Amino acid sequence: AVEPDLRGRHVVVSAGGTREPLDPVRFLGNRSSGKQGYALARTAAARGARVTLVSANAGLPDPAGVDVVPVGTAVQLREAVLKAAADADAVVMAAAVADFRPAAYAAGKIKKKDGQDPAPIALVRNPDILAEISADRARPGQVIVGFAAETDDVLANGRAKLARKGCDLLVVNEVGERKTFGSEENEAVVLGADGSETPVPHGPKEALADTVWDLVVGRLG
Ligand code: PMT
C-alpha cells in the first residue's frame, strides 16, 4: 500500500514541451513527451495529493483524479503555473520550456520565394518561470523543484543551474535525441540547495517521481 503522505497537500506539476508558433503551420518545439511529468502527477495523486498538472502538448491521457490544464506556449504555461501555485505546497517543473520564442508571428503561412535566401528567424527571450516562482514564493515554505536537461558536464551544469534558478531541489538528467525524451525510464541525480545529492538509478519514470516526492515530503513542514 502507498503511504498517503501528501494527503491534504496541493501540488503543481508541469509536463511536456512548449511550442512557440512562427505561423499557423510551424512552431519551435522540443522532444519532451510529457511522460516524466505525468509520472510525477500520477504518483502524487496516489500519495493523496490534490494535483494540478499543467500540460504542454503532451498528447497523453489525463491521469485519473488529476486536474489537467492544457497549455501551448511558455507564456501560457507561466500563467497557468502562477495561478495554480498561489495555494500550492509544492511546484515541480518537469516541462521543457522554450527559452526563446519567435519575435514575430505571421498570421498567414510564411511562403518561400523563388531565388531568395530564407529569412533568418529573430527570437526574443521567454520568461524564466522556475526562477520567478523561486524568487517570489506564493507561500512561505513552498517547496520548488526544477529539472535540468543536460547533454554534457551534466552535474557541473546542474549545480550551476540550481544556484541560478534558486529552487530547493533540481533533478539533473541527461538527454539526447533518443535518451530520456519519450522513454519509459530515466536516471538522475537530485541536487538539493542544502548541498545534498540523491542519485536515482536507471528505472521507471515513476521511481524517480517517487524519490522526488520523498524529498519534497521531507522538506514540507
Ligand atoms: O517528457 P519526457 O519525454 O518524459 O522527458 C522528460 C524531460 C527530459 C523533459 C524532463 O525530465 C526534464 O528534464 N525536464 C526539464 C527540461 C528543461 O526545460 O530543462 P532546462 O534545463 O532547459 O530548464 C531548467 C528548468 O527551468 C526546468 O525545470 C524548466 O521547466 C525550467 N524553465 C526553463 C526555461 C524557462 N523559460 N522557464 C522555466 O521555468
What report would you give on this structure?
This protein is of the alpha/beta class. The chain is built from 5 helices and 12 strands. The protein has helices spanning 35-46, 74-85, 129-135, 154-165, 205-219, and strands spanning 10-16, 20-21, 27-28, 50-56, 67-71, 90-93, 100-102, 123-125, 143-150, 169-174, 185-192, 197-204. It has an 8-stranded mixed β-sheet with strand order 5-4-1-6-9-10-11-12, with helices on both faces. Strands 2-3 form a two-stranded antiparallel sheet. Helix 4 (154-165) links the parallel strand 9 and strand 10. Helix 1 packs across helix 5. The longest helix is centred in the C-terminal third of the chain and has 15 residues, at 205-219. The two termini are 24 Å apart. The model has no long low-confidence stretch (mean pLDDT 97). The site of ligand PMT has 25 residues, from helix 1, helix 3 and strand 9.
Short overview:
The protein has 221 residues and is α/β, with parallel strands linked by helices.
Features of the shown structure:
decarboxylase, alpha/beta, 221 residues, 12 strands, flavoprotein, 5 helices, 26% helix, 8-stranded mixed beta sheet, binds ligand PMT, two-stranded antiparallel sheet, globular
How far is the first residue's CA from the last residue's CA? 24 Å
Q: Structural class of the secondary elements?
A: alpha/beta
Biggest pleated-sheet summary: 8 strands, mixed
Order of helices and strands: EEEHEEHEEEHEHEEEH
Catalogue the unreliable spans. none
Mean pLDDT over the residues: 97
Major sheet: order of its strands? 5-4-1-6-9-10-11-12
Shape: globular
What is the radius of gyration computed over CA atoms, rounded to a whole number of angstroms?
18 Å
What fraction, in percent, of the residue positions are helical? 25-40%
Strand content: 25-35%
| Overall strand count | 12
Distinct ligands, ions and cofactors found in the model: ligand PMT
**Helix count, DSSP H or I runs of 4 or more residues:** 5
